[in-house]
Amino acid sequence: MLLAPLSSQAETQAVDIYSQEQLIELIRSKQYLTRVEGDDCQLVQDIEARAEVLKQPLYQYLWGEMLNYGICVKANPPRGMALLRDSVAQGSAEAMVRIAEYYYHGTFVFQDKERAVHYVLPAAASGDLPARMLLVRLFGEGYGSYRDFELGYHWLYNDVFSDEATKKEAYELLKVLEEKIPPSIVAKIKLQHLKSR
């Protein structure tokens, strides 16, 4: 008796390369590495080519993270961090936030919260909400320039939130930062927000 192979289980579905929109969503939801593994590492060569040859910032981010954590390739954090920095140099807010998180927590690098501020400030200035949250957290902990505290507070206070959990977290971060800013400045920021409506 001959047994026919179960082709539906044995065959792997071909996977298309991620669009920029898909990749941004995967990065923001922190599902990018899980997705690459879930796609059976089929896109490794395409990801590497888009990062190393085409120098696309989001693919530099993805390839760098794959190297940092050894996803589908041998781990190589020095090269991974270099790719993240290349992505930062091209203006990727996602890469700025990720490197800032690494310095905030001391992952792959020495913990340096002042350096975290350096990386996250431009992303926050561009309007990136995760960057603004991290920046206000750092300011609340006393890192960064006191002159920038007002700006960070203004950005986050006037942001728009898509869910209540994020809004609540932002509120808690702002309350901590309020203790480091004169009440008159906080009142001025809140008044400006009302006038802009």
Please describe what this structure looks like.
It is a single chain. The chain has 197 residues and is mainly alpha-helical. Helices cover 68% and strands 0% of the residues. The protein has helices at residues 7-10, 20-28, 32-38, 44-52, 57-69, 77-89, 93-105, 113-125, 129-140, 146-157, 164-178, 183-195. The termini are far apart.
Q: Which structural traits does this protein have?
A:
single chain, 197 residues, mainly alpha, 12 helices
Helix and strand arrangement:
Blueprint: H1 7-10, H2 20-28, H3 32-38, H4 44-52, H5 57-69, H6 77-89, H7 93-105, H8 113-125, H9 129-140, H10 146-157, H11 164-178, H12 183-195
Helix pairs in contact: 4-5, 5-6, 6-7, 7-8, 7-9, 8-9, 9-10, 9-11, 10-11, 10-12
Compose a concise summary of this entry.
The protein is mainly alpha-helical and 197 residues long.
Quantity of strands, as a count: 0
How helix-rich are the residues, as a percent range?
Answer: 55-70%
Radius of gyration: 21 Å
**Average pLDDT metric:** 92
